[in-house]
Design a protein that fits this description.
globular; alpha+beta; 35% strand; single chain
């Protein structure tokens, strides 16, 4: 039978805590997506947002319009970036609306890039 040297209880707890911390690597925050290009949409009161290589590959892109006069279901839009990080989506908005654009990958969400519709 193998016998390990006895260690005081406090040293065992400290050693276990050290291994627990050493095994976890810090998660780097996601960068915000690049500011998109904004152009006229296909119907009145819509605009097309697009970005070439401005997000992480395959990231979920979320756009929130801060205009509280819009119905809630029209204030949020989204899409998924392609494998190069490019994306485009049509959103309900009017000139002067402020949009927050963020990206999500796995369970991590980036800070927003804020753009004004012009």
């Amino acid at each position: 039978m193998l016998r390990l040297p006895s260690l005081p209880k406090i040293r065992v707890l400290a050693l276990a805590a050290t291994f627990a911390v050493a095994c976890t690597s810090p998660t780097l925050p996601l960068p915000p997506p690049a500011a998109p290009t904004i152009s006229a949409g296909s119907t009145p009161s819509t605009f097309r947002l697009s970005s070439v290589d401005g997000a992480l590959p395959n990231a979920l892109i979320v756009i929130v319009n801060r205009n509280e006069e819009l119905p809630r279901n029209e204030r949020v839009s989204g899409t998924i970036a392609d494998d190069r990080g490019s994306w485009d989506v049509e959103v309900t908005a009017k000139i002067g609306d402020v949009l927050d654009v963020s990206q999500e990958s796995g369970t991590t969400r980036s800070p927003s890039t804020t753009v004004t519709v012009r």
